Amino acid sequence: RTLEEKVRERTAELLNSRSEIQRRAQELAIINEITNAVSSSLRLEEILGLVIREIRKLVVFDRASVSLAWGSEEINEVYFLEPAQPDGGEIGRTYPIKGTGIERVIKSGQALIRDDFSRGDEFREDDFIRKTGVRSGIVVPLIRRGEAIGTFNLGSTRPAAYDRSHEKLLQQIAGQLAVAIDNSRLYHRLESHSKNLESEVARRTASLEQSLRELREAQEKLVQSEKLAATAKLIAGVAHEIKNPLNSMSFSTANIEKILQTAEEIGQARELSRECIEILRSDITRLKEMVDRFMSFARPQPHQREAVDPNSIVREVIRGLRDEFQAGQVRLTENYDSKLPPTELEKDEFHRSILNLLLNALEAVKPGGRIGVRTEATPDGFRLEVSDDGCGIPEEIRDRVFDIFFTTKDRGSGMGLSQVYRTVEIHGGNLEFETPEEGGTVFRMEIPAGGCL
Fold it and tell me: pTM score > 0.90 for this model?
């Protein structure tokens, strides 16, 4: 009989141990399920719903909620989980926590178990809890990074429904829940920041597009203003160039009229008028040449480009100026790059451009001066330099040297360098000049490979 009693006692102990192991295994499975949910989802409502479903498998409750304070003196977020709210459970309520059971749990970091709310008002929220029908409850802190950010609350309509075993289980679940709440908050902050950033980028982009439109409009107005200014300058230059011959023609016409009125015989009138007529004929020719040059510059006639050796054109121009170099006692140095490829050029225009550059150099140097001509192949085409050791170009007029009709010479037309610039532009090239510190001027012409065969 003693042995049978021992067997029965041991069997009961084993059954109890088995039940405890099964219960513990179920708790671990539920905690593992909650942990997986926390690590795989950032949707707090989804995680809270899973937590409530899993806890119900182990703990009996009639009401459940989460209250968040985030270190402040007020509850600023409340999630009513059971019974669920029609709007999904999240309600933004703000109320002070001073004098509440939640305050004690947050400050102490320890769970609070209430066996019977009918015994009196221990905390300021007790009357509200009794009106919901809850008789007992448990409040567990939500600890995140060593700080209580809020509480997890369960309530039952039965008295003394919770004990320390529930506290131990709920504390493990509350730790995972705190992680989920914190991660969700950080995610929503990041999402909000991302949306704000996208909105700010869109706003800045719209502002930039508006600025670009305004800039384009301003550029169009500026181009139009520059065109009008250039036209006005051109007209003024033409008028200035035409004015002197017209004054001379007007004076000669007046002289002829006076001669015809005062001469005593026709032979004398003819003799006296002949000089005035020669002046008229010279001025008319001068005006015609000026108009032709202007028309050629304003509306250059299409020329047939042909493949030529740029060096040969430069040599041809220099041969035609040998007498001028000798008369001016000018030393000429020539340096030609033999690797220049045959290039598609408007030969006459290019010839005239080289001639203008050399004539300008001849007028700039003094007797005994030096003029240098150099060609060089470049990766993009070829380069031509015409240098002299003359007086150079004063700084105050350097930005005007390519303007049409601008000249510092007494008898210059002011169209030479303008024609050179226009020719280089037509060939898609670049024309620039510099005045070295040692004096003189260097004009540098570059023609791109677009014209090379």
Answer: no
